[in-house]
Amino acid sequence: MGKEKYKETWKAPKISGIFYLGTTMDSLTTVAVIFSYVLSLLRISVAVDTIIVNQNITDGETITSAGGSFELGFFSPGNSKNRYLGIWYKKVATGTVVWVANRESPLTDSSGVLKVTEQGILVLVNGTNGILWNSNSSRFAEDPNAQLLESGNLVMRSGNDSDSENFFWQSFDYPCDTLLPGMKFGRNRVTGLDRYLSSWKSDDDPSKGNFTYGIDLSGFPQLLLRNGLAVEFRAGPWNGVRYSGIPQLTNNSVYTFNFVSNEKEIYFIYSLVNSSVIMRLVLTPDGYSRRFTWTDQKNEWTLYSTTQKDDCDNYAICGVYGICKIDESPKCECMKGFRPKFQSNWDMADWSKGCVRSTPLDCQKGDGFVKYSGVKLPDTRNSWFDESMNLKECASLCLRNCSCTAYANSDIRGGGSGCLLWFDDLIDIRDFTQNGQEFYARMAASESGINFSFCCLRNINLIQISWYIYSKVLNQLFTVHTCL
Ligand SMILES: *[C@@H]1O[C@H](CO)[C@@H](O)[C@H](O)[C@H]1NC(C)=O
Ligand SMILES: *[C@@H]1O[C@H](CO)[C@@H](O)[C@H](O)[C@H]1NC(C)=O
Ligand SMILES: *[C@@H]1O[C@H](CO)[C@@H](O)[C@H](O)[C@H]1NC(C)=O
Ligand SMILES: *[C@@H]1O[C@H](CO)[C@@H](O)[C@H](O)[C@H]1NC(C)=O
Ligand SMILES: *[C@@H]1O[C@H](CO)[C@@H](O)[C@H](O)[C@H]1NC(C)=O
Ligand SMILES: *[C@@H]1O[C@H](CO)[C@@H](O)[C@H](O)[C@H]1NC(C)=O
Ligand SMILES: *[C@@H]1O[C@H](CO)[C@@H](O)[C@H](O)[C@H]1NC(C)=O
Ligand SMILES: *[C@@H]1O[C@H](CO)[C@@H](O)[C@H](O)[C@H]1NC(C)=O
Ligand SMILES: *[C@@H]1O[C@H](CO)[C@@H](O)[C@H](O)[C@H]1NC(C)=O
């Protein structure tokens, strides 16, 4: 995609290599021949990974990360004639692009130049010095430089900084459509920085397409894939082990993953078990989250996994209080104690209007809960959570609040902990054959076929006792709290 920038090949480490070769030779002429040979070799194989103030990268020049994995320079995607500044795989023959700087402001010719300013800002200008893109930073830099790391991260730091990890700008903070190993996928809660993926418009156009994929912080945080503003797919909340809606996210021999959530940050991150594996996660122009690995033998990307599994991953396909079961026909059914809101629509496979309660809730008389297992938790955008409570406290809290529609553990590790409460219609629930979760949905106690008129929940300050009643009608265990 361009010639490597080699003007810094005269740096000390490379010269010491030449001396070593030179001193092992007997004949002066051989030394001279080897010397010039080594020089030309260096010019080809040793590339610079850093640019400093007053240096630049013009169209046709590139810099390469130290181990030769990634290259930065100008490129034209697909059939496009436009020029973009980007980072791509160097070892991989297809030169797949992983990051684009000026995705919204392409160059129409090859006049682009990337510069590092004295203030420590990366600036991309065109032939008339018009600024097409720049990095930004709130910190002031001394002797700044930009380096392309082996991870594919383009970083800016001060030359006087002894902490080599102290970046004041990095491309990993501004992802495009690709999540590389080591990138944080999520938010900095202090600065508000939101690292989400956004699809390319098409293979020929890296500008922002219709789809975004990132963490939503309303209610209990969850990972949402949107088409414009509308949710397309909900990976769901993190349950301590994985995202509730991605059962296939399990420990494996290829990559490890971690989810960090504290008062400063909330993000997902993955890293490779064997660093010689090449893997990327990409949000495609048509809105699929896909993980690929590079296969040298075939010289092509192999699809490792697609996050969206099947039709049941279409957001809210069964409407409110509906459950999607991919192996059933029809795939949508109402939750227990619910019936289709519009039976005729339902019969014609239009499930979008969802289901309604067969028996209205009667909070005063006392409601019960039906347990659902092996499912993806409902949409948590209108939920509340407390990570220190246990399931009993959680049940009691939900029961005492008449607008609470369901509860669950927020973390499934070690038998479960934390409390998650829903305060809205339950939506986007699906069945999983493995790695599903449990939650408890509020039901009218009378739905159990048992007369609960002895319940006297009018005064919640009275001592509460719990009844566990098995309903033959629903084939479910009810937890009913009554008072003495
Ligand atoms: C880029 O840098 C080179 C020297 O490193 C200089 O000759 C050239 O004028 C610079 N180009 C631009 C457009 O700044
Ligand atoms: C350079 O960029 C500026 C500002 O983006 C724009 O107005 C100008 O037309 C561009 N010049 C060329 C030659 O593309
Ligand atoms: C950097 O630019 C982005 C977008 O222009 C802006 O939202 C952000 O606040 C800026 N950051 C700093 C540190 O100035
Ligand atoms: C580097 O230089 C900047 C600007 O002069 C200064 O604010 C900063 O403290 C310096 N850092 C170190 C580690 O000396
Ligand atoms: C997955 O790996 C992590 C880290 O090695 C470990 O803590 C966890 O228990 C493993 N989970 C499962 C389900 O094996
Ligand atoms: C990593 O993968 C490479 C290539 O497949 C292999 O040669 C190497 O032995 C692996 N390293 C480890 C530690 O498994
Ligand atoms: C993106 O949205 C536009 C406008 O809604 C639509 O015309 C286009 O087909 C969409 N593209 C994809 C790939 O969904
Ligand atoms: C029930 O919970 C909602 C949402 O958290 C809250 O606004 C409301 O005050 C609660 N009601 C009672 C009676 O605690
Ligand atoms: C439940 O029992 C009470 C008193 O025992 C009675 O008045 C009421 O009608 C019963 N309700 C139903 C639905 O059977």
UniProtKB/TrEMBL annotation:
Listed Gene3D superfamilies: Bulb-type lectin domain, Hepatocyte Growth Factor
PROSITE patterns documented for this protein: BULB_LECTIN, PAN
Top-rank taxon, per record: Eukaryota
Keywords in alphabetical order: Disulfide bond, Glycoprotein, Membrane, Signal, Transmembrane, Transmembrane helix
A Pfam family that the UniProt record links to this protein: PAN_2
Residue intervals of the Bulb-type lectin domain: 48-169
SMART domains the record matches: B_lectin, PAN_AP
Residues of the Apple domain: 363-444
Transmembrane segment boundaries: 20-42
Function of the molecule: Involved in sporophytic self-incompatibility system (the inability of flowering plants to achieve self-fertilization).
Name used for this protein in its record: G-type lectin S-receptor-like serine/threonine-protein kinase
